[in-house]
Specification:
Strand content: 15-25%
Largest sheet: 9 strands, mixed
Bound molecules: nicotinamide-adenine-dinucleotide
Number of strands: 17
Strand order of the largest sheet: 16-15-14-13-7-12-11-8-17
Distance between the termini: 45 Å
Number of domains: 2
CATH architecture of the largest domain: 2-Layer Sandwich
Length: about 400
């Protein structure tokens, strides 16, 4: 009999939906499953959201008291899918109670806060993961495999973008994502950190940045109803407005520890771009290109191909590629956002079952926060900023 893993999930919003689906679906894809997640308790500060979430997401119980739930002896894993201001408090309490933890990204609002979380999980000896799920896209994992195998040689340049347009309209609502006290930062922490994770996964650690940051929309309409209205669904241009105190956009140059250079652009104000998470990587023997909006494809160019066939080719990922043994058996069926979370859940359960820390874990989450902070700092003073070791 496969062992079970009792999950308490804190937060029943957008990511609550994605994680709940992964707990249910993971053993359907990856069998034998390393562990079978049991959706035990759904906690939300909003009791109606907790009860709705319990029913929708298939949890046995609902609660609005995460402190009581985290202390329960029958809980094995605490899953933190709340806004960024509560990650540290919940994670530290969960670590002290001896629970394994998965925490949504960014790990916390600042590097200092992230460090307290890393110290707590290290002291407790529990398994920890930070939910940068895009590296679980099979095409991204395939890019990493090609790079590790040396197929494009020594990496020289990484160009990453994360462009969205859900906040391009100045009348789209004041989500918590525009509030520094809750979010920590804007595009830098929310989407820029995803690209930083990919850059570190594919190329290596980042040692210095030189950035620009900009806020285009200084006020936005206040939200009603207590539920976050990410995007423009609840436009209210004539009502009261609140201040935006985070960045809308960032551009940064990068220096990597291994000598490569690169750049990242991140914005949520790029009309026409939905989830334009891309990278182009040049090595001294080839190149790799990925665009999440065509997530089943990886473009590769190998410089040592015969001259008459040299050029980019498109690989459509499927059973022959990373995670292909668990995902769909025919290449053309494709994957969606959910599958990246299902693979993330699989890797987390493997880590818990084996006692080996997964990647990215809280040490990576802390390092990414140090890089994000250096980007924000450089954005203010316009100079190169070394990312401290
Ligand atoms: N990996 C990704 O691709 C991805 C995508 C979106 C969001 N996120 C991250 O996931 C986290 C949650 O974002 P979301 O989009 O699900 O937010 P959301 O606003 O949709 O949902 C958050 C939920 O948490 C509840 N909540 C708030 N404070 C709480 C507290 N102290 N205790 C218990 N419940 C609380 C809210 O009532 C709400 O239901 C954030 O850290 C965000 O950056 C990651």
């Amino acid at each position: 009999m496969t062992k079970t893993l009792n999950v308490a999930m804190i937060g029943g919003g957008f990511m609550g939906k994605a994680h709940a689906l992964a707990y249910a679906a993971m053993p359907m894809f990856f069998w034998p499953a390393p562990l079978i997640p049991v959706r035990k308790v759904l906690v939300d500060i909003n009791p109606a959201a907790a009860e709705n979430g319990r029913q929708r997401f298939g949890f046995e119980e609902a609660s609005s008291d995460w402190r009581a739930v985290v202390a329960r002896p029958d809980i094995d894993l605490v899953d933190i899918v709340t806004p960024n201001d509560s990650h540290a408090e919940i994670a530290i309490a969960a670590a002290k109670a001896g629970k394994h933890i998965i925490c949504e990204k960014p790990l916390a609002r600042t590097a200092a806060e992230s460090k307290t979380m890393l110290d707590a999980v290290n002291a407790a000896g529990v398994i920890h993961m930070v939910a940068f799920n895009y590296r679980r896209t099979p095409a991204v994992a395939l890019a990493q495999k090609f790079i590790t195998e040396g197929r494009i040689g020594k990496i020289q340049n990484f160009r990453g973008t994360y462009l969205q347009d859900w906040s391009a309209d100045p009348d789209s609502p004041l989500s918590w994502r525009f509030n520094k006290k809750i979010a920590g930062s804007g595009a830098v922490g929310d989407i820029g950190t995803h690209v930083v994770d990919l850059a570190r996964y594919l190329v290596g650690d980042i040692t210095a940045v030189n950035a620009m940051t900009h806020t285009y929309v200084k006020t936005r309409p206040l939200q009603s109803g207590g539920v976050d209205k990410l995007g423009a669904a609840d436009k209210n241009s004539s009502g009261p407005r609140g201040e935006v105190d985070v960045d809308d956009e960032m551009l940064t140059m990068l220096r990597f520890a291994n000598g490569a250079v690169g750049s990242i652009e991140a914005t949520r104000n790029a009309y026409g771009r939905n989830n334009f998470l891309t990278f182009e990587i040049h090595g001294d023997r080839g190149s790799i290109v990925f665009n999440y909006e065509r997530r089943d494809e990886l473009q590769v160019m190998f410089a040592d191909d015969p001259a008459d066939v040299r050029g980019f080719r498109t690989i459509y990922t499927g059973p022959a590629h990373p995670y292909g043994d668990g995902l769909w058996p025919i290449p053309g069926l494709g994957i969606g956002y959910s599958e990246t979370k299902i693979v993330e859940c699989y890797d987390l359960c493997k880590a818990i079952a084996s006692g080996q820390q997964p990647s990215p874990n809280f040490a990576d989450g802390y390092r990414i926060e140090q890089i994000a902070e250096a980007i924000l700092h450089s954005g203010e003073n316009g100079a190169w900023v070394e990312v401290k070791a």
